[in-house]
C-alpha cells in the first residue's frame, strides 16, 4: 500500500517534492500545508488533495506516514526546525530539505529527537542518488580505485562581475555565511559519501570587489581543505557566481586512489574512469596521457536536467520507509545531514580564525538497533 504523504511548504521546492510524490507509485500525496493560504490552496487544487494552513491541523486530521518538510526561511533553512520537531513528536517519518537547519544547535536537536523517538529522519541530500554516483560506487566496490588518496570537489554557480546583482531578498541579504549554510551541505555530503567522516577542516574564503562595493556581506568564494578518517585528503572549492567555471562545469567531483580515478561531471550527466598506470609507464611522463594513463572508460547518461536528482532521492526515502529500515540504515539520514553541517560550522570557525585547523564537533554515537543486529 502506498505511503500517505503530506508536504509542508509550497514554494518552488515544495511543489517539486509534491510532484515527485504524485508521480511515485510508493507515495500517496494526500495533503499540502502552507501558512500562506493562497499557496496551499493553489497546490491543493493542482494535486487534487486537501489544503491545510497549519501543520498541527494537518497532523490532527490526516493519518500520515510521512511529513515532507520543504519550508525555507533565512539561509534556506530557518523554517525547518519547528515543523520537523512537531512531526517527529507526532510519530511521523520526516524527509527534510537541506540544510537540516541554518543553526547547528537546532540540527543537533532534530537528530536527537528522531533518535529518542526511534523514527526515520531523512534529508534531501540528492546529489549522490544518481546513475553516475552508482557507477562510482561500483568502481570502488570492484577494487578499481584502491586505497583512497584524494578527492576534489568543485561546485557552485558560474558567473562573474558582469551578471552580478545584489540579492536583497531578506532571506539572504545581510547574512555573511548564507552560502556556507545553504550550499555546502551538498558538496560535503558527496565527499563524505565516498570518503567517510572528516577529522580536520581548514578554510580560506573571500568575496570579490563587486560584492564589497554593493555592501553585500556574503562570504561567497570558499576554499576548504579536509582530512578524512581514512587518511585521504580532500579539497572543496565553492563559489556563488563570483567567476566562471572551466573544465567540469558547475559540478565536478574527482576521486583518486592507488588503482584508479574517476570524475563525475555536472552531477548526473557523466562519469569518466582512468586506471592507474602499470609498471611500464611508472615515472615516465612521456608515456602519460591526459587523465593519467589512457584506457579511459566514459559513461554519459544523456541526462542534463539536474532536477532529475529529486525523484531519485525521494524514491529512495519512500523505499526505505516502505521496507521498514531501521534509523541506523536510512540512506541520507538526518545524522548524515548533521555531519555535513558540523563540517560547515568547522569551516566557518576556521575562516574566522584566519585559516586555523579545526576539528568538527563529534557526531552522536550510533548504538545500533538490537532488534536487527
Task: Itemize the secondary structure elements and their pairings.
Layout: E1 3-8, H1 12-23, E2 27-33, H2 37-47, E3 50-52, H3 55-61, E4 66-69, H4 81-89, E5 93-96, H5 104-117, E6 121-123, H6 131-141, E7 148-155, H7 178-183, H8 185-195, E8 198-206, H9 209-213, E9 221-228, E10 233-239, E11 251-257, E12 260-265, E13 270-275, E14 297-300, H10 309-322, H11 334-352
Parallel strand pairs: 1-2, 1-4, 2-3, 4-5, 5-6, 7-10
Antiparallel strand pairs: 7-11, 8-9, 9-10, 11-12, 12-13, 13-14
Helix pairs in contact: 1-10, 4-5, 5-11, 8-11
Tell me about this structure:
- Helix 1 packs across helix 10, helix 5 runs antiparallel to helix 11 and helix 8 packs across helix 11.
- The protein folds into two domains: 149 residues, Rossmann fold (3-Layer(aba) Sandwich), CATH 3.40.50; 177 residues, Dihydrodipicolinate Reductase, domain 2, CATH 3.30.360.10.
- It is globular and about 60 Å long.
- The protein has 373 residues and is α/β, with parallel strands linked by helices.
- The chain is built from eleven helices and 14 strands.
Amino acid at each position: 500500500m502506498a505511503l500517505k504523504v503530506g508536504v509542508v511548504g509550497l514554494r518552488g521546492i515544495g511543489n517539486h517534492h509534491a510532484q515527485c510524490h504524485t508521480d511515485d507509485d510508493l507515495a500517496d500525496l494526500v495533503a499540502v500545508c502552507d501558512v500562506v493560504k493562497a499557496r496551499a490552496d493553489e497546490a491543493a487544487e493542482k494535486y487534487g488533495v486537501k489544503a491545510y494552513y497549519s501543520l498541527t491541523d494537518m497532523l490532527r486530521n490526516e493519518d500520515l506516514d510521512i511529513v515532507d518538510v520543504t519550508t525555507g526561511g533565512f539561509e534556506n533553512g530557518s523554517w525547518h526546525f519547528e515543523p520537523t520537531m512537531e512531526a517527529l513528536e507526532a510519530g511521523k517519518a520526516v524527509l527534510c530539505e537541506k540544510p537540516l537547519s541554518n543553526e547547528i544547535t537546532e540540527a543537533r536537536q532534530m537528530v536527537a529527537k528522531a533518535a529518542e523517538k526511534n523514527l526515520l529522519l531523512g534529508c534531501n541530500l540528492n546529489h549522490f542518488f544518481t546513475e553516475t554516483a552508482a557507477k562510482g560506487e561500483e568502481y570502488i566496490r570492484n577494487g578499481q580505485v584502491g586505497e583512497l588518496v584524494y578527492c576534489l570537489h568543485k561546485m557552485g554557480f558560474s558567473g562573474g562581475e558582469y551578471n552580478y546583482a545584489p540579492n536583497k531578498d531578506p532571506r539572504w541579504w545581510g547574512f555573511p555565511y548564507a552560502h556556507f549554510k545553504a550550499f555546502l551541505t551538498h558538496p560535503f555530503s558527496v565527499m563524505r559519501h565516498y570518503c567517510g567522516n572528516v577529522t580536520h577542516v581548514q578554510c580560506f574564503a573571500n568575496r570579490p570587489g563587486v560584492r564589497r562595493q554593493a555592501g553585500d556581506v556574503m562570504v561567497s568564494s570558499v576554499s576548504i581543505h579536509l582530512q578524512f578518517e581514512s587518511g585521504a585528503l580532500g579539497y572543496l572549492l565553492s563559489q556563488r557566481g563570483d567567476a566562471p567555471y572551466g573544465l567540469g562545469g558547475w559540478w565536478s567531483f574527482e576521486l583518486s586512489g592507488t588503482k584508479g580515478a574517476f570524475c563525475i561531471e555536472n552531477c548526473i550527466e557523466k562519469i569518466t574512469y582512468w586506471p592507474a598506470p602499470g609498471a611500464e609507464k611508472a615515472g615516465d611522463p612521456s608515456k602519460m596521457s591526459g587523465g593519467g594513463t589512457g584506457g579511459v572508460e566514459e559513461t554519459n547518461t544523456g541526462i542534463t536536467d539536474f532536477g532529475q536528482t529529486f525523484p531519485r532521492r525521494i524514491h529512495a526515502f519512500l523505499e526505505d520507509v516502505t521496507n521498514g529500515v531501521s534509523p541506523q540504515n536510512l540512506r541520507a539520514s538526518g545524522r548524515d545531514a548533521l555531519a555535513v553541517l558540523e563540517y560547515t560550522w568547522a569551516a566557518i570557525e576556521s575562516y574566522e580564525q584566519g585559516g586555523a585547523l579545526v576539528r568538527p564537533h563529534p557526531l552522536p554515537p550510533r548504538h545500533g538497533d538490537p532488534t536487527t543486529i
